[in-house]
Specification:
Length: about 120
């Protein structure tokens, strides 16, 4: 069956036809739900699954989702996870497919405001 193309269409109609809904995230992340939790990307959902497994195996004591920190100038930063290992060491993780200019600035602010809490960048996969 062949698709019948209209003679004229708006840009929004074209995008909707090509992309399905016509809306997509800036970096083409696909929202994914795991355990009733909505994640912004498949990579973030996969890291959540990995952390759950590490917790079940006793390698980490626990972890939290999207902790909120205030950086210089009142800038709010919400990394994806805060993790505590079996020895009580704490760090935060941010899952990124691409390092944006905004993230690089926040990383510098982070290093100034919270030098005692490591920030680990997890490359999206």
């Amino acid at each position: 069956m062949q698709t019948k193309w209209p003679e004229r269409m708006t840009a929004a109609q074209y995008r909707a036809m090509i992309n399905g809904s016509g809306r997509h995230s800036k970096y083409r992340n696909k929202k994914t739900e795991v355990d009733g939790i909505q994640f912004d990307s498949k990579a973030e959902a996969n890291r959540y699954r990995e952390l759950m497994l590490l917790q079940q195996q006793g390698e980490i004591k626990g972890f939290g989702l999207q902790p909120s920190f205030v950086l210089m100038g009142g800038v709010r930063y919400r990394p994806d996870f805060i993790v505590c290992d079996a020895n009580g060491h704490i760090w935060v993780e941010d899952v990124k497919g691409a390092e944006t200019k905004e993230f690089i600035i926040k990383l510098k602010f982070w290093e100034t405001c919270y030098p005692w809490i490591p920030l680990i960048l997890i490359k999206g996969r």
